[in-house]
Amino acid sequence: MNRERPAIGLVSATSREPTSSDSFTFWLAPDVIVNPFDIVEAEQIAHEGTSRTFGIVTTLEHTTDAPTHLANYISNDFGQIGSEPNTVRQGATVAKVAVLSNDKDIYMPVTCDRPVRFADEAGIHVALGIDQIPEHYRVPAGLIRMSNGTQAVVYLDLGYVLGPEGAHVNITGISGLATKTSYAMFLIQSILQTAERAGIRNKIGVIILNVKHGDLLSIDQPPRGGLEPEQHEMWERLGLKPKPFDNVRYLLPHAKDTPTTGRPNSFRLPERNWSIYAYSLQDTYNKLDLLLSQIPDPWDTLGALIGEISAGLSDPKTGYWGPRNKWARVTDWQSLLYGPPLVEPNTGQSQKIGEVPAVTVSRFRRILRRIVETRQSGIFVSQRAKGIKNISEEIAKIRGGEVIVVDIAKLTDDEQTLVFGDILRTIYALYAEEGSDREDLPEKVIIFVDELNKYAPAREKESPIVEQVLDIAERGRSLGVILFGAEQFMSAIHERVAGNSSTIVIGRSSSAELAAVHYRFLDPAVKANITRLEKGELVLSHAIFRQPIKIVFPKPAYLQEGAEA
Predict the structure, then answer these.
(1) Other CB atoms within 10 A of residue 561 CB
(2) Residue 563, pLDDT score
(3) Do 315 and 414 belong to one domain?
(4) Of 81, 254, 257, 470, which is the most buried if we count CB atoms within 10 A?
């Protein structure tokens, strides 16, 4: 095997730079090209025989026998660029390597002058620990492409993606149009196909939020003209079928003109299986805390009023205050905002509710008017017409093997927060304390949302939506609720969300961003390489990998709005 793969250099240990159990250096033979993220193997001699130590190249340096740069300047006839140097310098290119693993668990430092080779695919799997993942738990996550042309399929451990060992995926970077979304959709497709082969597809449900234009409103449609041949080859190399999603249901927001046109407030209309959702007061009174998540409430006065409203509307027949319920006439947004008990009928002024002063009631009415009347997109209605869905009820019907796409692209920030929080709260209630007696409830639910920093920002004080996201990040693994999040800057999301993600995917990022504490797990050399990533290249950190690796992945095999423009 080694004869087929010639040595590309020899390990070099010096008095100043010794090899260690964590790293080694080797010099390269002339004309050999090596790049950062290449995976190499060095022969290791021990009493038990020969073993292989695998490592990933982090940096490359060229060194010469010149003691200073001035010596090089002088040897070229005191700076004559076109002249032949008087002293020909002896030089070598050396590669620094971070140790990944040893195939016999021998972590003695690699000794000097041991041969180094490019690893083959089987060696790469040993290096990353992929060989220890059971076959039916291997999820294709992309391809490693090395400088010598070697390609290797990278697998994630399903137990660390969907639990119970670990969970959650976070994707970050400024990689360009739809790169993060494309990778998330590819990974979800890969998980579903892996589950299908293992006979557990009906145990996984997927909820996807469409936050940008119509990007994800045709994921059940094949791309026009098909994929390029090289994309087909990549899908097949990964052992996957390039196909659109199946069993997809779309939920689209109500628009102001929906009652007359019948059309939703969406950038694109799916070809089939879509319905419209809206929020009446009856759908929302117990979720007003989510609707007002973005509003500062340092003294919890708004929270107290929301509690009074929720309690008062929860049972209009008997009422929170007995048979003569003063909330009985509150049936829609209009009557809540302009009628009793929030408003005194004779004067039209806000009035005290329980222990909540009138000034707080005025503030609440002013904020709620702005959200549900003056700036709303059409999602808030007096009463839901026939055929208009309650999103919480629709999400609660999720079945195994089903993909639900919820469009929020045209909604305001407050409306998006309400919808996302409503989905999280509904799913959490299904799987947590309240539980469910449904036999067809999937064991795992993946929730994918882009722009996660909107809902769990790094510097945000506690709010209902932040608490909901953190709850799922910290407890979702044991419940079966898995969060796939994406954002441009990981430093902009709550540290506990990123910290609870077993898989982190990083696209090209700036050096300023990489200086944030969220990236402290990365070696400085890896950070430098991340700033040079090309479009479509990602750095992948997974719970079982000893070091982050660089991968490429195929384009999703569904109709993409940007690609068809």
Answers:
(1) 16
(2) 45
(3) no
(4) 254
User: In this structure, are 355 and 414 located in the same domain?
Assistant: no
Q: What is the pLDDT of residue 206?
A: 98
345 and 395, same domain (yes or no): no
Cα–Cα distance measured from residue 527 to residue 95, given in angstroms and rounded to the nearest whole number: 17
Amino acid at 81: I
DSSP character at residue 88: P
Query: In Å, how far from its chain's centre is CA 475?
Result: 17
First to last CA, the chain: 49
8 A C-beta contact, residue 281 and residue 332: yes
Q: What is the pTM of this model?
A: 0.93
Q: 342, 374, 406 — which closes off a domain?
A: 374
Residue 555, by phi and psi: left (phi above 0), alpha (psi -120 to 50) or beta?
beta
How far apart, in whole angstroms, are the C-alpha atoms of residue 33 and residue 47? 33
Phi-psi region of 558 (alpha: psi -120 to 50; beta: other; left: phi over 0): beta
Q: How far is CA 525 from CA 58, 531, 535, 547, in A?
A: 6, 10, 20, 12
- 502-154-446 Cα angle (round to 5): 45
Give the pLDDT confidence score for residue 373 in this predicted structure.
Answer: 95
Give residue 461's pLDDT: 67
Residue stretches of the chain with pLDDT short of 50: 1, 318-323, 563-565
> Residue 461 belongs to a domain with what CATH number?
3.40.50.300
In the chain, % of residues over pLDDT 70: 94
Domain extent for 218: 168-278+388-564
Question: Residue 462's pLDDT is what?
Answer: 74
Pairing of β 115-118 and β 39-46: antiparallel
Q: What is the C-alpha separation between 382 and 373, in angstroms, rounded?
A: 11
Q: In the beta sheet, which residues pair with residue 61?
A: 94
